[in-house]
Design goal:
- 2 copies of one chain form a homodimer.
- Chain A has helices spanning 62-76, 92-97, 113-122, 142-148, 174-183, 201-213, 249-253, 264-270, 275-281; strands spanning 7-12, 17-31, 36-42, 47-51, 54-58, 82-87, 105-109, 135-138, 154-160, 184-193, 218-225, 233-240.
- With 283 residues, the first copy, chain A, is an alpha/beta fold.
- Chain A folds into 2 domains: 7-58, Spermidine synthase, tetramerisation domain (Spermidine Synthase, Chain: A, domain 2), CATH 2.30.140; 62-281, Vaccinia Virus protein VP39 (Rossmann fold, 3-Layer(aba) Sandwich).
- In chain A, a hairpin with a 4-residue loop joins strand 1 (7-12) and strand 2.
- The longest helix of chain A is centred in the first third of the chain and has 15 residues, at 62-76.
- The N and C termini of chain A lie far apart (42 Å).
- The mean pLDDT of chain A is 96.
């Protein structure tokens, strides 16, 4: 039952779980200013990138995460034009955002430029929109960037970060959410990856509380499978001063671009939370 | 990155994935007539039972699988009284079925009596309804039992089996489904666990095809997270000669028993399939 060197194992000591992918070879390893970045060729999931040995993205299943972080917010917003992505260095979320014709500018604020450069080299499909003139790349601290951003200057903020420990911890608190609230227009929407419903229920509870404290009257969580993340089950949480209950359904049905997980009817279904999460969140 | 002896790893060679739980100790190991049965105390998931080193059930997350295999079928059926469970040796599905007051008899046909005896010893919560006078235990081959069962004698058949290799393979083909169709009453419903939507799409396609070939005009798949099964994402497929589109919604809202994942609104949401599965199944 021991896994040998032919496997990459992400061991999550706090939850007593581990997930492994069989690998053909290690394609890349470097220590950037911020973290260890590795890329593997796997036997069944295409290429995989890990940051500090935590799996970020694989060719095979990244579409679920990226579609579910991006499209629900962008189809709820009546006319999403100016977007910021905090984190998102692999550029998969950016690629989904740029599928929306209403979008005029996306600013991606990723602290570690090396993640994006490695993704450009090894995940060309995720980066194929990087040359879109609407895309603007900044490699700096997202928290400070948000503090300095102009009030009411964005329609959607997507927080596509690593787990809320270390670098990303400051993206999951009231102070940061208050800055997001200030920078969003009155009908603006924040969408953040919020970890595993099964393993990190407390993180979800804290995010809901902090978002409300920061002035977001409406907070809703959606859920989706994500094989390579802890427990294989993940969530995103949306927040706005205005209602998140309706979407541009017809626009979604008639969208001119392809999605592989998300679609108009799945949008509402993904917001229907299991009983124990409803109870935990008092929704 | 190697996992040591403190971890139990389920290695799925065909998909190049593995899932591991950290263990405190091995509580039980035996080789029954049919398979190796082991029980571990884990650090974070309570007790875990594995059959031939494939995880079947943990204290922490079995509720999702058992609720989602059982309640959708039983709340779609107008008046489920007589039920058969093929497999289901851990008795978790039986426990959920017996929560329904309409049920008058449940026959559980599990080939390996030792699985049930081990579950009684180590998973008392799953087995707490085993003494219910409506429960009838048979330890024999489910395929033969179905061949010999009287026509139109059941309302619901639940197929709660291991993966469709080896022993369980015969539970996933047209011949077996034809027998189920014969044994079900005209408004009867079959519900079967049908593996991972991500990793086993071909099994889902084959199940749909075989169920239709066997005379089930209506076939619908639902999906749910299941941390300890391959990919962390699982499915169940329901089949009937009659429509599966509606449910006893008000009965479900007013149900007198507790569920932790399933509820009335989640019922419909769980049948909304991702785009790539809709495409694969032509639904």
């Amino acid at each position: 039952m021991l896994l040998d060197q032919q496997w990459f194992s992400e061991i999550d000591q706090p939850t007593g779980t581990a997930f492994s992918l069989r690998i053909k070879e290690k394609l890349h390893e470097e220590h950037s200013e911020f973290q260890k970045i590795t890329v593997y060729e796997t036997t069944d999931f295409g290429r995989m990138m890990a940051l500090d040995d935590v799996i970020m993205v694989t060719d095979r299943d990244n579409f679920i995460y990226h579609e579910m972080l991006v499209h629900p917010a962008l189809f709820i917003h009546p006319n999403p034009r100016e977007i910021a992505i905090i984190g998102g260095g692999d550029c998969g979320s950016l690629h989904e955002v740029l599928k929306h014709h209403s979008v005029t500018q996306v600013t991606q604020i990723e602290i570690d430029e090396r993640v994006t450069r490695v993704s450009e080299q090894y995940f060309p499909a995720l980066c194929e929109s990087n040359t879109d003139p609407r895309a603007n790349f900044l490699f700096t601290d997202g928290i400070r960037w948000m503090q300095e951003a102009a009030a009411h200057s964005l329609d959607v903020i997507l927080i596509d970060s690593t787990d809320p420990v270390g670098m990303a911890e400051g993206l999951f608190n009231t102070a940061f959410y208050r800055e997001c609230r200030r920078v969003l227009r009155p009908d603006g929407i924040l969408a953040q990856q919020t970890e595993s419903p099964l393993l990190h229920t407390a993180i979800l509870q804290k995010a809901h509380h902090s978002l409300r404290t920061a002035g977001f009257a409406q907070v809703r969580t959606l859920h989706f499978p994500q094989c390579v993340y802890q427990s294989g089950w993940w969530s995103a949480t949306l927040a706005s001063a205005e209602s998140l209950a309706s979407m541009r359904y017809q626009d979604c049905v008639e969208k001119k671009f392809t999605t592989h997980y998300y679609h108009a009817d799945l949008h509402a279904a993904s917001f229907v939370l299991p009983q124990f999460i409803q109870t935990a969140l008092n929704t």
